[in-house]
Every structure is written in structure tokens, then in C-alpha cells.
């Protein structure tokens, strides 16, 4: 820590206690695995609830299965300021993804109590249910539920004869009350998260103030060629679906670089690829590829989709294969951070001496759903080598503590300024 940071109103040791305590709750042969809707997840929840209560918070599980700890304000009618993240992991994930945000949020509540600071607003700390892609194949279950945005049909999704509806019940929720759960009392939401990328570490910065959570669009392309004998069909007489699909992949990468050179964050990845019949002695007859494209700016995504359509038509003509028009199979728009809350976070960084920059998130987060119902924004802290979703994921405890101090200062500012804006 710098000299300025040594005077932070945060107890870093308590943050480490939460992170280490949850890290011990894992499948012994798969560190660090604590997936939502499993007994280990519920054990982690019990650990967190115990610490929430020890911090003087009133705890409950809402209808969507979110664990919430509440610190009552002097003027509850003003509404709620909420902080939090998630405690579930991906298989063989890390100790900090989501967990750092829950630990930092809890520490803000404890530090406010230590300092004898009473807020006018209620303060709630939340551990959202199933932020990661769950055993049911869907993510952000808790934050979508709190925002009233769980899609029709999700509750009937099944894994090993367990439905998502039953999973929420086992987590302590009540799916029958989901239609009336949408919160209107939350006046601001803040989330701390590890960056899951290398930028802050490379630039030796403490905090990333997240301007937007990129929209995620997935595009499917089917290439239809013709199966033929690999040894007898002349090279010039083939309609090889794999060759055409390979050209698509390379051109998609070029398009990704071109769009990334423009304004805002942009990535494009072919993350799924299948060929048929997938035999060594047969010219491939069919290929399927799935593009994962992410853009901070919606206008850039729309141009990219148009570029992909033109690319598919051109390669089909040049190779003689049939390429179905690219199909958008999912399309989530970007979620910009609230400008006023972003300014508050920047001011808080200045107050605690945290070197920061503005940056977009290429990953999805619970904040994206909370931003549909309230003023929301998030901050990033560095993680070693940008690694995440792996056992090697690491964030320095001092970095988490500094991020918690930024949240602490932002909450104090929001508590007063929200009243001025109403």
C-alpha cells in the first residue's frame, strides 16, 4: 500500500478471512469449485450468512435465492444502497471471481459500523445466486430475478431431474413470488470485481471504473458442402465445407481486429466449431461455427453483424458451398454505467488516492441486470496476469482492500447526494 492507502478505513484482514474461508469450501480434487445449486454452494452460503450476522446485518433470502444482509438507515423511506457480487464459481475456477466483491461489500458495512457512521439510506449487501453459467445452462439467475427479468421457461429447465424452480427453492428462494420481486427501492448499486484481464496490472493502476458492460451477441453460421472420397476426388472438384469455414474463421478474426481498432471495446471469437462427418478419408460435408462477439457500443455490433452477412455471402460465392445466412441466436445489448455514479466512483478514487482509469468490461456481470432497475456501476481491481476462471486466479488482498475503500467513500457520497437528486 502507498502512504495514502495505509490510512484506509478498511480492515484488510477481515477481507482475507472471507476469501480464505470460502476457498476452503471446495471439491477437494477440483480447486476451486463451488457451483450454484450444489451442497458446497449452500455450505458457502451458510459461511457468508454467519459473517453477515456477525457484522450486525439482518439477513434473508429473497424469492430469487439471493442472500441479502441489511443495515437499517436513519431514513429507510429514502430507499436502499446495495453492494455485492456472487460467491458461486465455475468448475475449477478461482478464489476471487465474485468472492472479492462480496467480501469487499461486507467490509464496507463493517467499517461503517466501526467508524460509527449511520447512513440515511438502508444499506444492503448481496450475494447473488448463480452468476456463473449454472448446471441449468443459464447465468445471472439471482440478479435477473431481482430485476424481474427471468425469461419465460427458465424455471422448467432441468438437470439430472432437478428443475431450476426446485434449485431456487433449495437455495432458500420462493419462485412463486418471482413475479412480484422486481425491486423499486434500490437507489444505487455498486459491484467490485477482479478485472479478469491484464490491463490494470500492465498499466500499474489500482482501479478500473467500468464505463459499460459489453453486449454479447452470438451468431451461428452453417456451411453446407458435399461429402466425397478424400483420395479420389480431385482438388479442383471439391465442395469442402471445412475449407470454406476455415476461411470464415480467419476473416472473422480480421474483422474483429478492425472493429477493435475503432472506438470502444470490441472482441470477436469463434469459440465453437463442428464438422461432419469428421472422418479422415471424407471431404467434410458440413461445418457449424458459433461466433461470440462483444461490443461496448451497440452501433458497432450492428455494423459487425452486417459485415458477417456480407462475408458469408462472398465466401459462399468464391468456394461454391452453401452458407446459410448468419443467424443471431442470442443478442444482449450493452449496459452503460450510470454517468452520475461513475463520476461518484472517480471522485472516491481521488479521495482515497487510488490510481484509476475508465474501461469497459468484456465479461458479463450481475451489474448488467441491476442496471435495468437502478443507477448502477462497477469497479475493477487488478488480477495477476489477467488470469481468471482458473485455479491460478489471484488478486492481492491489499488491492481488494483499496477497492473496498473506494466503495466505502462512494457509499458515503451517494448517501448524501442521492437525497439532493430527489
3D architecture notes:
The chain is of the alpha+beta class and 422 residues long. It folds into two domains: 5-213 and 335-421, Aminopeptidase; 215-332, Alpha-Beta Plaits (2-Layer Sandwich), CATH 3.30.70.360. It has helices at 12-23, 39-54, 99-114, 141-146, 164-170, 199-203, 241-260, 298-319, 339-352, 367-370, 397-421, and strands at 58-61, 67-71, 80-86, 122-128, 158-159, 162-163, 186-194, 207-213, 215-224, 266-276, 286-295, 322-323, 327-332, 335-336, 356-361, 375-381. Strands 1, 2, 3, 4, 7, 8, 14, 15 and 16 form a nine-stranded mixed sheet that branches. Helix 1 (12-23) runs antiparallel to helix 3, helix 3 crosses helix 11 (397-421) and helix 9 packs across helix 11 (397-421). The mean pLDDT is 96.
Set down the secondary structure blueprint.
Blueprint: H1 12-23, H2 39-54, E1 58-61, E2 67-71, E3 80-86, H3 99-114, E4 122-128, H4 141-146, E5 158-159, E6 162-163, H5 164-170, E7 186-194, H6 199-203, E8 207-213, E9 215-224, H7 241-260, E10 266-276, E11 286-295, H8 298-319, E12 322-323, E13 327-332, E14 335-336, H9 339-352, E15 356-361, H10 367-370, E16 375-381, H11 397-421
N- and C-termini, Cα separation: 38 Å
Question: What amount of the residues lies in strands?
Answer: 15-25%
Strand tally is 16
Shape: elongated
CATH superfamily of the largest domain: Zn peptidases
Q: What is the fold-level CATH name, i.e. the topology of the largest domain?
A: Aminopeptidase
Could you tell me the mean pLDDT? 96
**Largest β-sheet summary:** 9 strands, mixed
Helix-strand string: HHEEEHEHEEHEHEEHEEHEEEHEHEH
